[in-house]
Amino acid sequence: MPEANAFPDGFLWGAATSAYQVEGSPLADGAGPSIWHAFSHTPGRIADGQNGDLACDHYRRYHGDVDLMAELGLTAYRFSINWGRIFPHGTGRINPQGLGFYSRLVDALLGRNIVPMATLYHWDLPLALEQRGGWRNRDSAGWFADYAQAVVRVLDDRVHLWATLNEPWVVAVGGHLSGDLAPGHKSPHEAALVGHNLLRAHGTAVQAYRAEGRHRIGLVVNLEPQHAATRAEADQAAAARRDAFINRWFLDAALLGDYPEALVQGFGPAWPDFPRGDQRLIRQPLDFVGVNYYSRSVVRQGGADVPARAERVRQSDRPHTAMDWEVYPQGLTETLVRVARDYGNPTLYVTENGAAFPDPSPRDGTVQDPERTAYLRAHLQAARRALAEGVDLRGYFAWSLLDNFEWVYGYSKRFGLVQVDYATQARTPKASARFYAQVIRSQGAALDAEQR
Ligand code: FCB
Does residue 260 have a pLDDT over 60? Predict the structure, then answer.
């Protein structure tokens, strides 16, 4: 049953990218290297030994990419700023050429009536700061706020939507607990400390923004419903522990001012003794919460892993993406409704949602990607359902505009609405991009058109 068209006027129809994943030219015009530059140049870290030296060459081709966005009818673009372009050493001297790049990008977007949303941190810490202890160092909150202030001072007249951090959970856990992502540490104590300092950095940057900026700032988190595999109490408890770990860690701290008890208990002796006053700094009034949603997990009790002690159970009877993530669109409705319910109905954006599939080569000027189109349709319908249930959802950003550097997977996973031929840098909009363009043009009505 098609639902009443519920996308409000002014709803932002966007696509998202991040600096290291698309820009290339990581050291151009005086930029300092990031931890991802160092990590991807470390043998054995990235599939096929790939790195972000060229990526989508967006640093040099941004103008054409903005034209492409306009062609697809996007009304918003979420990008991130590479800190090391602005402060090559992380702190100290500003590099005007780095600011110049983002300033030109923003002007190009506004020239096409595309609303820019800028993320201040999408995982690419300046290497110089990592050498000073990175996010493990309590000073990191101040470093980040100074950087935020410098950027906001120059761009806030034109950028009216800001995000402090992208997925701090992934920075803490991927970077410092599992060690799969940069900087590749494996320590529960460090992960907890990094999570805390990221939250302090977020709070300090929001304060700096209130002093310097005049528009809207929020936090972007990755959320993933945790469903118990059985009704057994032990499995239910495991799902609740993993929910506290993945979904509540950063939201409870930033919006409610406290960590979930189950999280602190799960870390046990690895959890540091934080100064009490920190919570006040961390809990700043926010203008919105950005939700990145890809999938859900089904879990049962098991494993010794700190802090969740839970195991995922693969749902082999259900469709999965090339990342082996279950396609579970109703989880997006569930997630948005839950955030609205548990956190005082904040303004929300879906800041990332999308899927990797093994796409065929272009034929007749397009790429046939029916699975991605189906994914997009079902998730946009799920977002619309959340709107109908009263969630204050203001926009949706597909991940990603372009196929790009998917972290440790290198270029092997393609999430783009637009295919990138990395040898020639040719861009080819996929069928899913054409579908999204129709949805945008029809303000959502095309979601109900007959499915072929
Ligand atoms: C998210 C990241 C984004 C991209 C997608 C697939 O966790 O924010 O950079 O890698 O996953």
Answer: yes
Question: Prior bond to 319 cis, omega within 30?
Answer: no
Residue identified by tokens 């500003």 is 94
Structure tokens at 281: 């700094």
Residue at token pair 């992208």: 166
pLDDT of residue 225: 98
- Probe residue for ligand 1, chosen from 167, 349, 372 as the CB with the greatest number of ligand atoms within 8 Å: 167
The Cα–Cα gap between 253 and 257 comes to 5
- For 179, the token pair is 């060690």
How sure is the predictor about 12, in pLDDT bands with cuts at 50, 70 and 90? very high
Q: CA angle, 103 as apex, 286 and 352 as ends, to 5°?
A: 45
Parallel/antiparallel/unpaired status of strands 348-352 and 288-293: parallel
Give the pLDDT band (50/70/90) at residue 4. low
Q: Is the pLDDT of residue 451 over 90?
A: no
Whose CA is closest to 202, among 217, 191, 186?
A: 217
CA pair distance 419, 359, nearest whole angstrom = 9
Angle between helices 188-212 and 168-176 (to 10 degrees): 150
Residue 144: CB atoms within 10 A of its CB come to 28
Whether residue 360 has a cis bond before it, omega within 30° of 0: no
Environment class of 182 (CB within 10 Å of its CB; exposed 0-12, middle 13-18, buried 19+): buried
Is 0.90 surpassed by the pTM of this model?
Answer: yes
Cα 276 to averaged position of ligand 1 atoms, centre (Å) = 32
**DSSP string over 284-318:** ---SEEEEEE---EEEEE----TTT-EEE---TTS
At 5 the pLDDT is 57
What is the atom index within ligand 1 of the atom nearest the CA of 222? 7
Residue 141 has pLDDT above 90, yes or no: yes
Distance 38 CA to ligand 1 centre (A): 19
Which residues form the pocket of ligand 1, taking CB atoms under 6 Å from any ligand atom? 18, 21, 166-167, 170, 222, 292, 352, 399, 406-407, 415
In DSSP terms, 352 is beta-bridged to: 292
Residue 315: CB atoms within 10 A of its CB come to 16
pLDDT of residue 1: 43
Q: What is the pLDDT of residues 181-224, one digit of tens each?
A: 999 999 999 999 999 999 999 999 999 999 999 999 999 999 99
Amino acid residing at 393: L
Q: What is the pLDDT of residues 379-397, one digit of tens each?
A: 999 999 999 999 999 999 9
